Amino acid sequence: MLKNMLKATVFATTMALAAGTFYTPAFAEVVYNRGTAAESESLDPHKTSTIYEAAVLRDLFQGLVMQDAKANVIPGAAESWTVSDDGTVYTFKLRKDGVWSDGAPVTADDFVYAFHRLEDPATGAEYASMLYPVKNAEEVNTKKAKPEEMGVKAIDANTLEVTLKAPTPYFLEMLTHQATYPVSKASIDKLGADWIKPGNLVSNGAYTLVEWVPNDHIKLVKNPKFWDAASVKIDTVNYIPTEDRSSAIKRFEAGELDSYDDLPTEQLADLKAKFGDQIRIGPYLGTFYFAINTDKAPWDNVELRNAISMAIDREFIAEKVWQNAMLPGYSMVPPGIEGYTPSVAKFADMSQIDREDEAKKVLEKLGYTPENPLKMEIRYNTSENNKNTAVAIQEQLKPLGIEITLLNTDTKTHYSFLEQKGDYDLARAGWIADYKDPETFLGISRKASGNNYSDYISPKFEEAMDKAAAAGGEPEERMKRLAEAERILIDEVGNIPILYYSYKDIVSPKLHGFEDNVMDVHPSRFISKD
Question: What is the mean pLDDT of residues 94-121?
């Protein structure tokens, strides 16, 4: 069959040339149907907060630096940079062939505008604190300084200077996050809030936005004006949200999805047997935790918060609910960050029976028994895995006199509720590293953080974090200070860590360049498909 096809092609080409015409063979469009476990909230880089938008925005935009297929930092919109001897001044040289999808050049002023916009209180950016290491960024965000006083300056069209308050070891890696991406001022000035709509959105990454059908798909197409377009192999990327993990697996098996970024863990043994090495599981820098409303009685009682945390059987949840695809977690910072030892809960070495006995004593002292139960609601975002975790905790705490009701909503609604500081008791949350540093896990519990869902406010914790930041130029001292801050956070139960994540992907053998890494980052730009 193949020989006949080749003969036919050669014959057609010969005849076309003989007739004086130019023959152009037709090549099929390469389409990557990329399954994701939740719908994106927004495609405005400065108004997003979850990993689901991060993956899409990573394809649409490019920051000063970016991550490669293995999550290493490589040049992005900046082709090079230098750092002052004291580690506080970064000078970036932007690539001269970097342009927006509308053909306008990407300039240093675009980054100045984007950084100012992120810190503008009117933007309401969840990740405004991301740039707090920059001189006067926090002051701008809290209306104590003017934007022009912020430590970001365009030296010329292709040179950007960023001045930090103190040496910040993770600064470059932090710049891979979508909150630091540039945005087109001309487009925003012209279109206002409509600038992110398909057909309007001007971006500087490997892809452009052409469609967004809510709860169905987001369609991206290759950006011909991207400076490295010649190396981009995928023509079209369809992000397809499917919250039901079991349904997603069926769609994958039917060929409707080429990859999916989660798995129904109760089916894990069967999935491994059926799909073999298409199942990808490995260490992932992330913590599955419960936010607890520390600003609301009775949860403002640290003894009560600790008793609840102590009574939760993490080993059972990891083994039985998650089929060992997750690890029991007793700290907010997961293991695996070089040079850092997490501060774990003091009861971590106790047997589960001893923990439950101790928790029971505290609950009885506070007046809670099976006859006079403590009523508590657990909120979680839709997922079989999250539901099974909540049900397990419900059953574990019931004998201790805690009566739990469960409430689930879709992921977008769930996190929007938490971000708006809705009234709740306990709420499922997860934090995936924005960069490989303990600060990304601890910074979310600072009082100024938009991701401080627990409304945890602790002067001792704030002071410890400030001391860690001030020790930026001394790596060992900084890590020691961060561990001290985590010890305060864990002892005061600002959150309840439950598990450490593993990435859980299913990937078609047709895909190449989908490299396993601890950040579970897979830019479509580096992927190809048979």
Answer: 98
* Burial of residue 198 (number of CB atoms within 10 Å: 0-12, 13-18, 19+): middle
Whether the CB-CB separation of 512 and 258 falls below 8 Å is answered with: no
Which residues, other chains included, contact 412 with Cβ-Cβ below 8 Å and sequence gap of 6+? 38, 39, 40, 41
Produce one character per residue of 38-60: b if its CB has 16 or more CB atoms within 10 Å, e if not.
Answer: bbbbebbbbbbbbbbbbbbbbbb
pTM score: 0.85
User: Is the CA virtual torsion 466, 468, 469, 474 positive or negative?
Assistant: positive
CA distance 525 to 484: 40
Residue 294 in tokens = 């520390």
Strands 31-36 and 259-260: parallel
Closest-CA residue to 400 (of 446, 429, 363, 427): 363
Burial class (CB in 10 A: 0-12, 13-18, 19+), 372: exposed
Nearest to 491 by CA among 481, 500, 499, 483: 483
Instruction: Find the DSSP H helices in 197-301.
Output: 245-253, 268-275
* Strand 327-328 with 279-292, pairing: unpaired
Q: Where are the beta strands (DSSP E) in 425-466?
A: 426-432
What is the per-residue pLDDT for 26? 45
Whether the per-residue pLDDT at 498 is higher than 60: the answer is: yes
Cβ–Cβ < 8 Å for 64, 268: no
pLDDT tens-digit profile of 377-428?
Answer: 999 998 899 999 999 999 999 999 999 999 999 998 999 999 888 899 999 9
Task: Dig out the tokens for 480 from the structure.
Answer: 């020691």
Q: How far apart are CA 205 and CA 72, in angstroms?
A: 18
**Residue bearing tokens 């990329």:** 34
Dihedral of the alpha carbons of 27, 28, 29, 33, in degrees to the nearest 10: -150
Token reading at 209: 């936005």
Do residues 129 and 179 touch, judged by C-beta distance below 8 A? no
Reply yes or no on whether the pLDDT at 1 is more than 60: no
- Among the residues of 47-206, which ranges form H helices? 51-60, 108-119, 137-141, 171-174, 185-191
CA atoms 94, 163, 461, 142: torsion sign: negative
Residues, the chain: 530
Q: For the purposes of burial, counting CB atoms within 10 Å of the CB of 170, is it exposed (0-12), middle (13-18) or buried (19 or more)? A: middle
Q: Which structure tokens are listed for 358?
A: 């101790």
Helix boundaries (H) for 152-275: 171-174, 185-191, 245-253, 268-275
Please give the structure tokens belonging to residue 340.
């850092």
